[in-house]
Amino acid sequence: IEGATRGAFFSGYTRPARCQAERCTEDTIEAISSGPAISRSFFGNSRCDARDVFSAADSGNGKAISVIEHAAEHLGILIADLLLIYDPTVVVVGGGLGSGSEYYFSRIKHHLQRSRSRIRATEATVEQAILRADSCWIGSIVIAQEGVASLQLGQ
């Protein structure tokens, strides 16, 4: 989201919804739902790979499932809120986690649907980025190129 003065912020830095989990003391969605956050919640540090948490969940590890559910719930609620604010026709979730783990994405959509039914949010579709984990980098490059082009054109 760009905004009129290019001052819009990344929604992952939004404050989390009220959470019933005792361990939920983080200040942002990013600190709960990102790869490093999932790794930190499971392993105790953010240097490990979140894909290992997803593998543990696939094997039935209860702690891994709990960590993923908690992260997916917050991200699903955030997307529901964004649907109410912006009323888009589609929301594209990119980055490593948003487009990397089918399990995580399915749980995000589950929590989004639960929130949608409570708040009657729009029926926009939620899709994974086609460019997968590289979507954020490629988008940044495109934005930078557009900025350089507008400077060269004197816009």
Secondary-structure blueprint of this entry?
Elements: H1 30-33, H2 35-43, H3 50-58, H4 62-86, E1 90-93, H5 95-100, H6 102-119, E2 125-128, H7 135-152
Parallel strand pairs: 1-2
Helix pairs in contact: 2-3, 3-4, 4-6
> What characteristic shape results from the CA principal axes?
globular
**Which strand order spans the largest sheet, edge to edge or round the barrel?**
1-2
The largest sheet, given as strand count, sense and whether it forms a barrel, is: 2 strands, parallel
Which spans of ≥5 residues are poorly predicted at pLDDT below 50?
Answer: none
The count of β-strands is 2
Percentage of residues assigned to helices: 55-70%
**H/E series, N to C?**
HHHHEHHEH
Number of helices: 7
Distance separating the two termini: 20 Å
Overall residue-averaged pLDDT value: 79
Strand content: 5-15%
Helix/strand-derived category reads mainly alpha
Rounded Rg = 17 Å
Structure description:
This protein is mainly α and 155 residues long. It is built from seven helices and two strands; from the N terminus they run H-H-H-H-E-H-H-E-H. A two-stranded parallel ribbon has the order 1-2. Helix 2 packs across helix 3, helix 3 packs across helix 4 (62-86) and helix 4 crosses helix 6. The protein is globular, with a radius of gyration of 17 Å. The mean pLDDT is 79.
Please sum up the structure shown.
The chain is mainly alpha-helical and 155 residues long. The chain has helices spanning 30-33, 35-43, 50-58, 62-86, 95-100, 102-119, 135-152; strands at residues 90-93, 125-128.
What are the key terms here?
single chain; globular; two-stranded parallel sheet; mainly alpha; 155 residues; 57% helix
